[in-house]
Amino acid sequence: MDVVSLSRLQFAVTSMFHFIFVPLTLGLSIMTAYMETRWVKTGDEVYLKMTKFWGKLFLINFALGVVTGITMEFQFGMNWAEYSKYVGDIFGAPLAIEATVAFFMESVFIGLWIFGWNRVSKKVHALSIWMVAIATNLSALWILLANGWMQHPVGYELKNGRAEMVDFGALITNPTGWYKFFHTVTSGYVVAAFFVMGISAYHLLRKNEVEFFKRSFRMAAVFGLVSTILVAVGGDFSAANMAKTQPAKFAASESLWETQKGAGFNFVVIPNAERECNQLEGLCIPNGLSLLAFHTPDAEIKGLKDFPREERPPVGPTFVSFRLMFTLGFLLILLALLAVVYGRKDTLESRRLFLTIMLYAIPLPYLAAQLGWIVAEVGRQPWIVYGVLKTAAAVSQSISPAQVWVSLLGFTLLYGSLGVVDIYLLTKYSKKGPQ
Amino acid sequence: MEFQVIWFILWAVLWAVYFMLDGFVLGTGMLHNFLGKSDAEKRVLINSVGPVWDGNEVWLLTAGGATFAAFPKTYALMFSYLYTALLLLLFALIIRGVSIEFRGKGEGAGWKQGWDIGIGIGSFLPALLFGVAFGNIFEGLAMDAAGYHGSLISLLNPYGLITGVLFVLLFLVHGSLYLSVKTTGDLSTRAANAAKKIWPALLIVAVVFLIVTAFATRLYDNYLASPLLLIVPIIAVSALIGMRIFMARGASLLAFASSCVTVVMVVFTGVIGLFPNLIPSNMDAASSLTIYNSSSSTYTLTIMTVVAFIFVPIIIAYKIWVYRIFRAPVSVDEVMKDREAY
Question: Fewer CB within 10 Å: C terminus or N terminus of chain A?
Answer without folding.
Answer: C
